[in-house]
Amino acid sequence: MASPEAVTPTRRTPRRNPANAPGYRHARTPVANKIDTPSTRLDQQLTKGLRLGGTATGGCGRVEHGRVDNARGREVPGGRESAGQANYLELFFDLVLVFALNGVVTRIVPSLTSEDVATRWPSLFATVVLALPLLWLWTTTGHITSRFDPRQRKIQLMVLASAFGMMIMSTSLPYAFFGRGMAFVLPYVLLQVGRPLLLIRALPAGGPVRAIYTRSAIWFAGSAVLWIGGALVKDERRLALWAAAITVDLIGARLGWPVRGMPRLLVSAWAVERGRHLPERYQQLLLIALGETVLAVGIAYTNAPVTTETTVGLVTAYVTTVLLWRVYFHRSGEMLGAAVDAVANRSMFGRVAGAAHIVMVLGIVATAIGYEIVQQHALDRPYPVWIVLILGGPALFLYGRIRLERVVFDRLSRRRVVAIVTLALAMFPLAFTNTLVASIAAAAVLIGVAVADSRHSAVRPPETPSPPA
């Protein structure tokens, strides 16, 4: 790992044989060879007076940031130019997310298995309200480490602080709605407001990326009122305020955090740079969620009496997890990184791909909850909310996967549409069976999708990504 204090040279001399140079795609193009466009002129204005040391990309060309802002004498985080893959610190952060998602599952299952129908359905809504802030914190952290070099000391400290904050949030999950609500919201608010403020102080004045973090800090500060207000009340009022708070956070990000009186952003907050880092992070996010499913079901099987039905439930859960992995990575998930290189509208790609992965993770979490219920009530007739989780979890995952295929290949996956319709139609008759039969039916539908994918690929040559224009 390079020393954080090392200053990268102003310009990198091009290799004589670029075709053989590892990572040449990310090498800096000399200014003399750039085409004179508004984007490049903007870059030159932003980098004037700076000692260059990296890049932070946006939606209208490369926005270069220096390690040192000579006008202000402050260190500026470098870009990802020479750090194209996730580093070990980011993977450490992912381990904390596994703990967090497992905490969501553990927190919700007792409420979903309650005899009180008035408790079960709100618990399903509470699952989303608790999971979304954790996933949104992971997403914003992923964009920071994608935009800036995670080997820089400031970025490393942000990642470590984010991991610690998520761990504190996770420990409060069992008591989130009636006790330690402040322990859940304070780390989230401090990180979502504090990290942009630190980056604003380091970035050059007037820069478009600085404008992004200024706007996001304002929006997160506004939603903090709802988060903290919810922590000061209990039960349904807390759930309602927190639901409103995460809605504000997501809508604000979707709109680019508009602020009255501030000029329109010159770059997109969600544009994906031409590299493999963020796509790899999204792939790792899916693997994290799948790993949490294995962890939750394995723990439930360990703590329950070993019977034929619980063993069949364990095998079904494992097969389902493998199928979700197979369905995700078939073509679209596997080609996600290559699609970044081919896409023209990187802002649209980053926005849709990010939302698709959050939807898929929510579907996986719902599936994990359903299979933990199967371990406890394998032969019981399912409550309607159980059927929604056991069958709706895979259906939600498939919907996210449809969105991903649209952004990678610009097409509608009819096989997955048929599978979603099948799962929806099967809910009513399966409600008169038991949870184990319902889980086997969900696995059978996923097997059908995987087999159809394999047959489709067998008769067609390998595809290249073709994102929408």
TrEMBL record:
<feature type="region of interest" description="Disordered">
    <location>
        <begin position="1"/>
        <end position="80"/>
    </location>
</feature>
<feature type="transmembrane region" description="Helical">
    <location>
        <begin position="423"/>
        <end position="452"/>
    </location>
</feature>
<feature type="transmembrane region" description="Helical">
    <location>
        <begin position="285"/>
        <end position="304"/>
    </location>
</feature>
<feature type="compositionally biased region" description="Polar residues">
    <location>
        <begin position="36"/>
        <end position="47"/>
    </location>
</feature>
<keyword id="KW-0472">Membrane</keyword>
<feature type="transmembrane region" description="Helical">
    <location>
        <begin position="216"/>
        <end position="233"/>
    </location>
</feature>
<feature type="compositionally biased region" description="Basic and acidic residues">
    <location>
        <begin position="62"/>
        <end position="78"/>
    </location>
</feature>
<feature type="transmembrane region" description="Helical">
    <location>
        <begin position="121"/>
        <end position="138"/>
    </location>
</feature>
<feature type="compositionally biased region" description="Low complexity">
    <location>
        <begin position="8"/>
        <end position="22"/>
    </location>
</feature>
<feature type="transmembrane region" description="Helical">
    <location>
        <begin position="159"/>
        <end position="178"/>
    </location>
</feature>
<dbReference type="InterPro" id="IPR010640">
    <property type="entry name" value="Low_temperature_requirement_A"/>
</dbReference>
<keyword id="KW-1133">Transmembrane helix</keyword>
<feature type="compositionally biased region" description="Gly residues">
    <location>
        <begin position="51"/>
        <end position="61"/>
    </location>
</feature>
<feature type="transmembrane region" description="Helical">
    <location>
        <begin position="310"/>
        <end position="329"/>
    </location>
</feature>
<keyword id="KW-0812">Transmembrane</keyword>
<feature type="transmembrane region" description="Helical">
    <location>
        <begin position="383"/>
        <end position="402"/>
    </location>
</feature>
<protein>
    <submittedName>
        <fullName>Low temperature requirement protein A</fullName>
    </submittedName>
</protein>
<feature type="transmembrane region" description="Helical">
    <location>
        <begin position="349"/>
        <end position="371"/>
    </location>
</feature>
<feature type="transmembrane region" description="Helical">
    <location>
        <begin position="88"/>
        <end position="109"/>
    </location>
</feature>
<dbReference type="Pfam" id="PF06772">
    <property type="entry name" value="LtrA"/>
</dbReference>
